[in-house]
Specification:
It is a single chain. By secondary structure, the chain is of the alpha/beta class. The chain folds into 2 domains: about 1-160 and about 295-320, Response regulator (Rossmann fold, 3-Layer(aba) Sandwich), CATH 3.40.50.2300; about 160-295 and about 325-350, Response regulator (Rossmann fold, 3-Layer(aba) Sandwich), CATH 3.40.50.2300. It is built from 14 helices and 15 strands. Helix 9 packs across helix 10. The longest helix is centred in the middle third of the chain and has 17 residues, at about 195-210. It starts with a helix and ends with a helix.
Length: about 350
């Protein structure tokens, strides 16, 4: 799921983190205060006003995955409530040129509203120009075409509550350690606003809210395949680590392998995003203590709701964030559904019984 968001780099340096411990938050590209997705709701009056209009929608995604499938499900369900017909759903395969072609093809069906994660800010700005000319309402997931203005060119950007994801990871690890201990911090060593903000939120929360916990080892990682090697080196230098934060689930699996190779059953791991290997270790009572995920289905629902409000001529918030959730052995089945709108892998469900 993480790779779905790594392509959205245009907001790097512009989506900011307001530090300050528990009071910190994710803010928008121009410093906008985030609106919680739960506040973006369609009233009965909204639904009645839009249902008989014959509006059409298009979902133009960057790739196909569990994450985008869940976003799509949320959007489709909300559009169905509003009587909006989906006339196009596309997968650009992380190819900006292909996405431009997808946009051109979709516009031939004359959608009234488009939901999309723009792959390339410059290419997307040109590709969506005809949609603006046609009066199509645009709602973007995580990224923004270059030069586009809220209220004029797009209805909203909808994304994860990045600070809360990192904060909840810190809270979960602190709980597992009873608020004290030595931890390692394995962060994403690349310029991606999603991982950068989540990682920094973890570190900020530990430093400000948990004085009994000390980050004694830090290691950047750019290639998940090197996670086991880097974790092994960290553990040689700091064999007494009580916990390790890992930037997302794929490298966390490598860190888990390093712990197993050294016979370490003590050091707790917390990481972000859902994946079967780390979830299986968690429910079996292994090193993994918690996984923090976004609510992908809620992202799609909120995007569709914003689109409907834009069609009705209502004022829409510029920047909307969907909540994070902490998944543990106790709530793994429900957590998977809440995040991805599907059942957890059968191996995880069986092991959690």
């Amino acid at each position: 799921m993480l790779i779905d968001r790594l392509v959205a780099t245009a907001l790097a340096g512009s989506l900011m983190l307001l530090a300050g411990g528990a009071g910190a938050q994710t803010v928008g590209p121009s410093g906008e205060t985030a609106t919680r997705s739960a506040e973006v709701r369609l009233s009965d009056a909204d639904l009645a006003a839009v249902k008989e209009k014959g509006y059409k929608g298009a979902l133009l995604w960057h790739t196909s995955s569990d994450f985008t499938n869940a976003v799509t499900a949320g959007a489709k369900d909300e559009f169905a409530r509003a009587g909006i017909q989906i006339v196009a759903t596309t997968d650009a395969g992380f190819d900006a040129a292909r996405q431009r072609s997808d946009i051109e093809t979709a516009l031939a069906a004359k959608p009234n509203v488009i939901l999309s994660l723009p792959l390339d800010p410059v290419t997307s700005a040109e590709a969506f120009r005809q949609a603006l000319t046609d009066g199509t309402k645009l709602v973007f997931l995580s990224n923004l075409p270059k030069g586009y203005k809220h209220g004029t060119d797009y209805a909203a950007i909808v994304t994860d509550d990045l600070f809360q994801m990192g904060k909840q990871a810190a809270d979960a690890l602190a709980k597992a350690l009873d608020g004290k201990g030595k931890v390692g911090y394995i962060f994403h060593d690349a310029s991606y606003y999603v991982t950068n903000q989540r990682d920094q939120a973890f570190k900020t929360t530990i430093e400000k809210d948990y004085p009994g916990i000390k980050i004694v080892a830090e290691q950047g990682i750019s290639d998940p395949a090197r996670a086991e090697e880097l974790a092994s080196a960290m553990l040689v230098q700091h064999p007494d680590l009580d916990g390790i934060y890992v930037t997302w689930a794929e490298p966390a699996d490598g860190v888990l392998s390093a712990l197993r190779a050294s016979g370490n059953t003590k050091t707790k791991i917390v990481t972000l995003d859902l994946a079967e290997p780390v979830a299986l270790d968690m429910v079996k009572g292994g090193n993994v203590t918690a996984l923090v995920a976004d609510k992908a289905y809620e992202l799609g629902r909120a995007m569709a709701a914003v689109g409907v409000k834009a069609l009705l001529g209502q004022e829409t918030p510029a920047f909307v964030v969907a909540p994070a959730l902490t998944v543990t052995k106790q709530n793994v089945a429900q957590g998977w559904k809440d995040s991805l709108n599907r059942d957890a892998p059968q191996s995880v469900l069986d092991a959690a019984k």
